[in-house]
Amino acid sequence: MIEKLIIQKTLRVPASTGAAGDGAPVARQLDAALLDVGFSASSALLEHVGGLAPAPAMDLAATVVSAVRELVGDHVQHNSYFVGFPDDVPDTVEFWTDRLRAAVLTDGGTATDGYLRDAATSGGVNLLDLPGYGTYQHTYAELLAAHDELLATAGDRVTVLGLGDTVEVEAARLYLALAGSATPHGEADLAILSELAVACLDDVQPAEIPVRENRAVLNGVRLVLGRPLVAVDTTTDVLRLACHVSGGDVSLGAPTRFRAFPRRERRILLAALNEVVGANQDKLADVVRHAERWKRLGERLHPHEYDQWPHAREVFTVARGERRVRTLAGRAEAAIRTGAIGPAASVLSAAPGLLLRSADRLLRLASAAEQRVVLDAVTGALGSASGRVLFSLREHVDNRLTPASARVYVNRSRGACVGPDRRPPLPAGLVAEVSARLDAEISARLPESPRPVVVDPAVLDVALPLSGKATEGGFAVLPRGSRGSVSGELLRFFTYWRQTSRRTDYDLSVLLLDDEFHTAGHVSWTNHRHEGVVYSGDVTDAANGATEFIDVPLTLPGHYVVPQVYIYAGESFDEVAESMFGYQTRTRDQQGTPFDARTVRARSQLRGQGRVALPVVFARGEQGWQAVWLHLYLPGMPSFNRVEDNTFTTADRVRALVQRRHLTMSYLVDRWRARAEVTMWDGRLPQEPVTFIGIDAPGDLPDGSEIYTLDRLSELIPE
């Protein structure tokens, strides 16, 4: 339902067009139901529900509750292996010994406890095959009966839901925002965009579609429905479109197996190629980068059957190597190989984005005399490059004064590998000069606000959302590198997964690191307890869904807590029917079931490529504990992944990312101070309309206010 998508994405409830009446009882029930899962309805929303007839009021209330329960992961039952978790979790060896004893007695044998303990610790027995291991020994109802109801405290999360316009207006607004975004989206938002593109096909379309992946999604809908394509101006736009409608990777990060295209679709794709190349032969240079994909696509499009589009056939001639086309990057690389760094920068000036992405390398290779030439070329490119490229370069040079502890390479699928940083640092004076020029260009692009700007201090440490690829879909999930304060006395991590067709075993684990990023211990299915950290038990089959928990007292001596999800066996994160990770915070006095939606602080999907997921790390500093979002997936092994086998590589990646200086909203707010009246929000509602920037929006801001929360922060990035 589009209504649920809108609620989950914007925290606004589309207004119902149902008949008026007395829905006050339903409004009261809605308010109570929302509080049970950590949400609250604004006064405007409650008034709207109360003014509807009972039937439409109940329909709206049911949609709202269903949407927010899914948002925080409360739509499934989170059982735990040990019914008394965290109080009745046995010692690891005691548990293995008990399982062995049950196996021996079942077969009619006898054995001493000493013999069983030796067998459990020797590694000579496959402990995971023991009777009763890895499957719930109690029902979810029995779990609830074994725990008291969670006591509510003032620290529990309360997220306010506002009232929006009608579903048609809200859908069109969200569609235009997503389609016209200046930054790429992650998989979750691309899926939302695709659904909205169908619903809004005949509505007003965005004036510009800056991100090419968005173009592919929109044109995928138009291609299937036989509508004219929009904003196709490169050959790669056509390739992305073909990958998208074939169910492949629209970012071209992974190979795609192209489907068969009906004749009508082949004609549309070839006509688009013909128009692009016919208008500019230089566009053929893009074909070389993806030559193999073009060859495979040519097998599906049959370009030789269409003589009326000769320029389209040239694309496949280049892909097959029958015609050579020199690319801009190739010409620049040839100049660099001869040591002509200044001329290489001049060549790349024709592609401002490529020049800025190559700036570090050019400045490192340039002689003292040529550095000025490169710097002038970079300066000349600033006005033509996208805002996202400017911010990326600004963050990059901010980290080039000293070599990094390790160099982390993160691809578009959030896969990460680490290598030594062998780059010599850039001179401090050069970094300062490049930074100053970038600051000036970025500041000039920021719009002037007609209203005072009010900023919630909690948003200042949120990393600039330069790409949706650096985050996951979910609730209160921040971009990679963002920091958020963590209150409470106890952290509780949870992971849930539900397999599609074959037995799948995920393992929630925690790695503890000291202040030098050395291993200080771990907790997992092989070690149930350490320094007060407790594991809920290992579930090895998720046909009906499975959940694992780990409790971490925030009084533990370590400095870094790294929760991880390992695929021990079975389906990948992309293959399972559903998978998620989240964390809750509680006080010592709070009892209750292992999962309670009111204490969920964040819940993210797990949908990356790799066998090990690192969603977030918790770091203790002078201001207390903070959550530092990572959104990384490590290759791991095909099966049998365990935390003990990855302590060094995990610590290496965590150290590199935690120590990296990320460009945050604080930087953007500082740039804005010269163009608007900026004040920090102190919790009091303003008396006049404002532009509010924060993680969550306070209720009842004055009419006419513009609100930028997590779902809209990317709109603050200038094109």
Automatic annotation (TrEMBL):
Domain of life: Bacteria
UniProt protein name: TerD family protein
Organism encoding this protein: Micromonospora fluostatini
